[in-house]
Specification:
11-stranded mixed β-sheet, single chain, 13 strands, alpha+beta, two-stranded antiparallel sheet, Cathepsin B, Chain A, 410 residues
Length: 410
């Protein structure tokens, strides 16, 4: 009997062990708890409240009391596409000039088109990389460029509609090119360090980097039911000739009435296609052109005390220089001592006169012009007093027909 009980006990124990449930485990995303949500939160809050806050101040003009035409409806405007942001990218040169060329296509053909800025940016980077290799690392490779880079790239690579190539991947709403640029720049520096000047290999690598960040430009695309390449779209659909556009410059360091080089970093290919004219003629052309229906891509300095993002207004304050003293010497003096710099490109689209002064409506792709209601008509625009252009805007791109009387003198 005792033996039977022992056997039964062993069977029960053995059966019990054989029925033990097998445990399992899995990887799960870490969930923060009381320590993170309460204790650490309190620690961070108190530490941050005790830190000395850095207050960033900027010396700027007080524009209260100025009678500024600060509504877009105050201006006689030429057609331009709605404002578009360049995001966190140094591409104002492309956005301003392509906006200008869109207006030109409408002026000439009455076609309203939205073109891809990033297509031009892509090929400009390719040409910068080519220049870097050919100069053995002595050519500038940066995000910036000049307005005439657009027509230069169009002649070589054509143009595409925005719908065919936005350059915005992963559901981005705004461009950010910092990582892309840093990777390309780092790669080119390594090429220089290794003395590895294989042009085809370098350009292919630069393309692959851009393809990762902004996508590969399309080879073919369809518009209005027809298939185009970038070249045929430019020639047969847009029907615009890049050679019809000229660069007007005014600075005293080079001879007037000569085609000269604009000696700034962003003119990295050292273009000598700038028509250099006296300042009075420069200002007359700006006013005459816009009043005759010609818009222009214009560039210069936007880091001044009288250039306010809060009011979207650009004025030269008297404490800088009184109006009657603004001349070609004052302009050149500031360029020579680098208080006028080649900062930003914009699109001049309108004009008005108020209290005997000329004012210009400026369409802009940067964030500075977007500090008001996003739904307001003024969102993305600046209002430039004529003196700001006279002292701080160094040059512009315009159709040659707008300046044909000037060009006869060259």
């Amino acid at each position: 009997m005792r033996a039977i009980l022992i056997i039964i006990s062993v069977l029960v124990v053995t059966t019990g062990f054989s029925q033990v449930k097998t445990d399992n485990a899995e990887f799960k995303e870490y969930e923060s708890g009381y320590y993170q949500n309460s204790i650490l939160k309190d620690v961070r809050f108190i530490n941050e409240s005790l830190e000395e806050k850095k207050v960033h101040k900027r010396f700027q003009m007080v524009q209260t009391g100025y009678d500024v035409p600060d509504k877009v409806n105050d201006y006689k405007r030429e057609w331009a596409n709605p404002v578009i942001s360049q995001g966190n990218a140094g591409t104002c040169w492309a956005y301003s000039t392509i906006s200008f060329l869109e207006s030109e296509i409408y002026r000439i053909h009455k076609k309203q088109v939205k073109l891809s800025e990033i297509h031009t940016v892509y090929w400009e980077y390719v040409e910068k990389a080519r220049g870097y290799v050919q100069s053995r690392g002595n050519s500038l490779f940066s995000q910036g460029s000049e307005g005439n880079a657009v027509t230069r790239m169009w002649k070589k690579y054509g143009a595409v509609p925005y719908s065919a190539y936005t350059g915005l991947l992963n559901n981005r709403k705004h461009h950010t090119h910092d990582k892309m640029y840093k990777e390309m720049n780092s790669y080119l520096k390594s090429v220089k360090e290794r003395n590895a000047w294989n042009e085809d290999e370098v350009i292919e690598t630069i393309k692959q980097i851009m393809n990762h960040y902004i996508g590969e430009p399309p080879v073919k695309f369809t518009v209005d039911g027809k298939e185009f390449t970038a070249d045929t779209y430019l020639k047969n659909y847009l029907k615009i000739n890049p050679d019809d556009y000229v660069e007007i410059l005014s600075y005293k360091q080079e001879p007037y009435w000569k085609k000269v080089e604009y000696k700034v970093e962003d003119n990295w290919w050292h273009s000598k296609e700038y028509y250099n004219i006296p300042l009075d003629d420069f200002m007359k052309i700006v006013k005459k052109s816009i009043n005759n229906g010609y818009t222009m891509s214009i560039g210069g300095d936007v880091s001044e005390a009288g250039f306010l993002k809060s009011t979207q207004t650009a004025i030269i304050p008297a404490f800088d220089i009184p109006s009657e003293y603004i001349d070609e010497n004052a302009r050149q003096f500031r360029f020579s001592n680098k208080t006028t710099t080649d900062d930003h490109g914009m699109h001049l689209v309108g004009y008005t006169e108020k209290n005997g002064a000329d004012w210009y409506l400026i369409k802009d792709s940067s964030s500075g012009s977007r500090n008001n209601d996003e739904n307001a008509p003024e969102f993305g625009y600046y209002f430039f007093h004529k003196n700001y252009i006279k002292l701080k805007m160094m040059g512009f791109t315009v159709h040659k027909d707008a300046v044909k009387d000037i060009l006869k003198k060259f």
